[in-house]
Amino acid sequence: MKRLSYLLLFLSFPLFAQLQSPAEFLGYEIGEQFSRHAQVVDYFEHVAENSSMVTYHNYGKTNERRPLTYAIVSSPQNLANIETIRKNNLASIGMGEGSASPDVAIVWLSYNVHGNEASSTEAAMATLYELITEKQAWLQNTVVIIDPCVNPDGRDRYANWYNQVKRTPFDPSQDATEHRERWPGGRPNHYLFDLNRDWAWATQVETRQRLKIYNQWMPHVHVDFHEQGINEPYYFAPAAEPYHEIITPWQRDFQTQIGKNHAKYFDQEGWLFFTRERFDLLYPSYGDTYPTYMGAIGMTYEQAGHGFAGLGVFTDEGQMLTLKDRAAHHTTTGLSTVEISSKNAAKLNEEFRKYFGNTNSATYKSFVMQGDADNIQALTDLLDLHEIEYGFTNGSFKGYSYGTGEKGSLEAKNALVVSTNQPKGHMVTVLFEPKTALSTPLTYDITAWSLPYAYGLESVASSSLVSTNGSQPNRMVTNQATTKAAGYILEWNSMADAKFLADLLKHDIRVRFSEKKLKFGGNEFDRGSLIITRSDNRNTENFDSKLTEIANNHNRKLYASPTSFADAMTDFGSPDVKLINKQKIAVLQGEGTSSLSYGAIWHFFEQQLDYPVTSINTDDIGRVNLDDYNVLVVPSGWYGRAMNNDAMKGIKDWVRGGGKLIAIGRALSSLERADGFGLKRNEQDSADTEKSEDSKLIPYDQREQERTKNMITGSIYKVTLDPSHPMAFGYGDTYYSLKLGSDSYKFLEDGYTVGYIKGDPVSLSGFSGEEAKAGLANSLVFGEERMGRGSVIYFVDDVLFRGFWHNGKLLFVNSLFFVNNNAFEL
Fold first, then answer.
1. What's the pTM?
2. Domains (range + CATH), the chain
3. pLDDT tens figures, 307-325
C-alpha cells in the first residue's frame, strides 16, 4: 500500500508542480470577490491542464452563449478507465448492454442553479482543488462530477450587478444598495425561469443539454447547492416530509448518514445547521427530487446568504455573515459528501441496482393515453429527453379514468403506452400517477403535475401490464400546390397549428378562422379551423407554393378546396369566417411584475410560438403610446404602483378604442380593485366569518397546519368550457386546470364566462384545503369582458406556468388571435 502511495505521488508530481490554488490563479482568496463565469471556466481549464485527476468538458451553451461545463474528478487510474466505469454503471441497472457489478461510487455536485445564490460556484473551485491535493484517497473508488455553474447567465447577471454597486470595502448594513438587488434579480436564467423547477419539464436549453449528460452517467449521489435567507444558518439532509412513497428506506437512511457526517465537521467548527425541515422530497422537477426518482441519493444543501448577503452582511442576530463563511460551509459539505460516498461505494452500487430492479411494486403498471396527435408527439418528445421507454397499442383497456376519477375504460387506437416495467419505472410512476400520496400537505411546491392532464390526453391507469403491439404512426405529410384551389383549410387543435399560423402571419399570408363549423367536400371542420383563401392572397407571389412549403415545414396537412361554396351553411365569405389580424403584441415587465410569469410569457413567444413581442417596462406604461399595439399582456404580479389611476385610465381608454388586455393570475386583483372592470371576487358567507372567530383561539403550534385549510398547493381541477367561444376553440367542453391558489371570482355579469367551476368543485389530484376548495364553487377560471370596442381577458389560472402545462397554451393563443376579432387592421 505504501509503495502504491509513493507511485501515485510520483505520477502526479510533475503536474502538481504547475497547479495553482484558486487564490493563486484568481489573485484573491475565495470569498473576497464574486468571480465571473469566465474566470471560473478559466480556473477549471487550468486545473484540468495541470492535473492527471481532472478532465473538463463542455456540454452546451446558454441562451447568452456562455459555456455549460462539467469536470470529472477521480484517480488517474479511474480516469484512464472512465468509459468502462460509466458503461458498467449503466449496464448494472439495465440501461446498457451486458452486465456488470461495479463498486465505484459516482457523485455529482451541481452548483449555482440559482444565479444569485452565488457562494456555491466559489465553493466549487475550492472543492475541486482540495479533492485533488488533499483528498486523493477518496478518489480511488469514487468518480466526482462537478458542474460549477448550472446557471451561468443568472450568476453573471448577479455578479456583474454586485461588482458594479458594492462599496469598497463591502458595506454590511442591510440597508445598503449592495443588498437590494433590482428586478428581475440573478436567480433565474436568461428567460427568467427557475432552473431548479425545470428538471422534469425540460423547457430550458440548460436543462435539455444537462439531461443528456446526466443520462450518460446516472450518478448514485446528487447534491444541489443553494442559499436561503440570511438568518437561517445551514440546511442539509435528511429532507423534510413529505417524501414520495417510492423513495426507498435505503435512500432515507443514507440521507441521515450523510447528514451525520456533515454534522461532525460543523460541530467541530461551531457552525449551526438544521435538518428535516422545509425542503421535502415530492415535486419531481427539483435538483434533489429528480435524481432521487432516478435512483440517486438526491439532496439540496442550503447556506444562509442568497443575493441579499453580498460579500458580507449583519444578520438580524448581529452576526457578520461573509461570502468566505458561505463558501467554506459549502466546501465542507461537498467534501463530506464525497468522503461518505467513498466509504460506502459498494453499498451505493448495490442499492442502486436494487432500485432499478424493483419497479413492479407500483399500483399502476401501465398508463394508456390517446388524444390529439400533436399532443402525443409533444409528450413523446419529453419522454425521449428522459430516455423513458414507451410504445403504442390498440384495444380496450380498463383502469383508473383520469377524466372521471373513478374506474373506467378506454377504447384505444394507436394509443400511447408508458409502463413501469422498465429501468426508469419509478420515474414513470411519479410523472404519470393520477394522485400523489401526501404524508403532510405542508410542502414546498405544487402537489399535482400528472402528465396525462398536462398534455390533455384521455387516459387510464391500468393495474396490469399493457403490452404494446404497434409503433408510433408516421405523421409526415406532403402537401401539393393546387393552383385551382379556392382556398385551403386546416383543423385547429394544437400548439403545432398555432406555430404554423404564426409563421403564415410573419410571411404576410392572410389567414381566416371560422367561428362556425364547416363542411367542404364531405369533410367536416370544427370551429377555429384556419382558412387561407386565394382571394385574400391575390397579391402574394407564388401563393400556392409558398403556402404549401410552410405547411410542409410544420408538417401540417391542408385540405385544398376547389370551391368556396360550402356543403352546408358557412362559405369562405361568411361574416363568421374572419380575417386574423397580424397582431402587434406587448407584454409588461419590470417592478411589480412576477419575473417568473413574465419569463414564461417571453419564452413562450420567442421559443414556442416564434412570434414577435415587445416588452414594456412598468415604469414606462404611462409614457408608451398603446395605440401602436393590438394586445397588452399583463403577467401575474403586484401592480399597486404601476397601475395607478393615470396608468389605469390610459389602459381603459386604449381597450375601449379596440385594444385587447390579457391579465394573468395575481394581476387580476389590480383590475378587480379598479373602477370600470366587471371582475368581482366571490365573498365569504357568514358561516365563514363565524369560523374565523374560532380560528383566533387555535394554539400556536397548530396554526401552520390550520392554515392549510385555506391553501391550494398546485391542484388539478375539472373546468367546464364553452367550446363555442373563440377562446376555447380546439377544445371540448372540459379542461383540466392546474390551480395554484385559492383566488375565486364571480361569473362575469356582462361578459363571457368561458371556463368555470359550477357547483361543487372537483379536484382530481393535488392538495386543496377544505375551505379553499369550497370557496371555488361557482367561480370564473377564464373569461372575456367587452369594454367599448375592445376586450379584457381574464386568466385566473396561469396556463403558461413554468411552460409545462402543454394543454393550456392554446387558450392563450386563441386569446391573442381569435377573441373579439371583429376588425382587421389594414
1. 0.94
2. 2-357 (3.40.630.10), 366-462 (no CATH), 487-579 (no CATH), 585-817 (3.40.50.880)
3. 999 999 999 999 999 999 9
